[in-house]
Amino acid sequence: MSQVSPLLIAQVTDIHLFANPSKDLLGLPTVKSFHTVLEHLQELLPQPDLLLLTGDLSQDGKLKSYECLQNWLTPLGIPTYWLPGNHDQPTVMEQVLNQAPIFPQKSFQAGGWQFLLLNSAVCGCVHGHLSPESLDWLDCQLQRTGEQPTLISLHHPPLLVNSKWLDRSTLQNSEELLKVIDRYPQVRLVVFGHIHQELERKRRGVRYLGTPSTCIQFMPESTEFGLDTSDPGFRLINLYPDGTFKTRVERVAFTHQLDMAATGY
Ligand SMILES: [Fe+2]
Asked: pTM for the full model?
């Protein structure tokens, strides 16, 4: 492992904020749990160099929910990049989440790595899909980056997660994405949200990472929709310029009464 100091990124995902901050999601007040996560983030030493928000930032897609997010993240002063999930409204996000330190760019470099953020959300659908334009864009970006180690991020997992109900809403054209990734050995990491649980897989030398939500957690490997009582969380990733990395999930204690009888969300 390289001794050069790494770039520390925090992946924060599936925040599910409401315009009305007193609303809860299946019993969990998403604003409160997000603030608990933010407090934990602010206590980290060293502080993350960069935040990566991987979709479902809002539950209702309303302007005010994104304005609240902007107001809460801006004081952190950490460069923040984002992409939409199935619950988001991308056009509303673009209106709001565009003032430093929050950046709308979907291709950028930091710490010797290239970051490429994809929009896998399909209007009105829970599942994910990448348009031909997105796949072409990715291919072009990867041609340009050459050998620079690369992290790709999107909301939907591009592989099955061994959970029957969630596997109905993963990325529907994952084979097309994997075909592009297979052509570029500089791709080291693919980071996603959507599944509200920790997941780590390896395929052809590339690590695929799923990350807990900052609110409700889904039961791993469940056939039907099911909530898990594990705490909200986020992921830290140390990226080294030589293309190696270390990662871990942080959980944040949060007491709440879940609606365990829920059959969906
Ligand atoms: Fe979500």
From this structure: 0.96
